[in-house]
Design a protein that fits this description.
Layout: E1 2-5, H1 31-44, H2 48-54, H3 62-70, E2 77-78, H4 79-82, H5 85-91, H6 98-107, E3 108-112, E4 116-119, E5 123-124, H7 140-153, E6 159-161, H8 165-169, E7 179-187, E8 193-195, H9 198-214, H10 221-230, E9 235-237, E10 247-252
Parallel strand pairs: 1-3, 1-6, 6-7, 7-10
Antiparallel strand pairs: 2-5, 3-4, 7-8, 9-10
């Protein structure tokens, strides 16, 4: 089983681990693509104003530029501890016990625009780059789509895709019975559904924490739905939109 998480714009500073070492990251087939994004971001870092424009940074976000300039020598920490924001605050990875973190190491993957797919406990630095950022000579969607899709195609078992659509487009999950894209919805008193924004991220974080604390061994979509029901989580199959897209499940918040 793999749980795919989006990253977040916000990240914790600092870290106690050594600087970024690509050989320490999961999914080594992505190493060349990682080297290329690091080189392109390094080139962009030579011009602070150009970087602000490319990364859509405001006048008070000079610290983000500084992060990118030193990211290859900066300290690292586990990916699920590095990211903050609504989803990761709800997940609250630093408070997980050792067994839950070990389960995260085996199951959780974060999709970084800079490094591609990284394991939950992979050591990563603080950086600023989004799925829609513009790098010199490199289009992130074209750059990552093929390599990440190949990695996910090779993954056996259930894939639970909690990424935003922007990141899912940077590396689509395979279309097969054991692959599901999760949408968070709310249902009002009339039965009408609507998609959520802030609470979408919060629900995904809480869902991921529930999986890590429960540590279920899930191999199929049916097993996922059954497990969610036993945990008091409202999850159901969504509409089958297209045979060329992964099956959708709706998590009701």
């Amino acid at each position: 089983m793999r749980i795919l998480l989006p990253p977040s714009e916000t990240k914790r500073d600092g870290g106690a681990d050594a600087p970024l070492a690509l050989e320490a990251l999961s999914f080594p087939t992505l190493t060349t693509a990682r080297e290329q994004t690091l080189a392109a971001l390094g080139e962009l870092s030579l011009d602070g104003e150009a970087m602000k424009l490319a990364l859509k940074l405001g006048p008070r976000q000079d610290a983000e530029v500084d992060r990118n300039r030193v990211l290859q020598s900066a300290p690292t920490m586990a990916a699920i501890d590095r990211y903050t924001g609504v989803l990761f605050d709800a997940l609250d990875a630093p408070s997980l016990d050792a067994a839950a973190r070990e389960f995260a190491c085996r199951t959780v993957v974060v999709h970084s625009a800079l490094l591609g797919l990284v394991g939950a406990l992979d050591p990563v630095p603080a950086y600023r780059l989004s799925h829609d950022s513009k790098l010199p000579g490199l289009r992130l969607k074209a750059h990552w789509r093929g390599p990440i899709a190949h990695v996910l195609d090779d993954e056996a078992g259930l894939i639970i895709d909690l990424r935003s659509e922007g990141y899912a487009e940077l590396g689509p999950a395979p279309v097969r019975p054991g692959s599901v894209y999760v949408r968070v919805v709310s249902i009002d008193g009339t039965g009408r559904k609507r998609a959520l924004n802030h609470f979408n991220k919060q629900a995904k974080g809480r869902f991921t924490r529930a999986v890590l604390e429960g540590r279920p061994e899930l191999d199929t979509l049916d097993e996922l739905l059954d497990w969610a029901d036993t945990e008091g989580l409202s999850m159901r199959l969504g509409e089958d939109r297209s045979p060329t897209l992964p099956r959708e499940a709706e998590l009701v918040a």
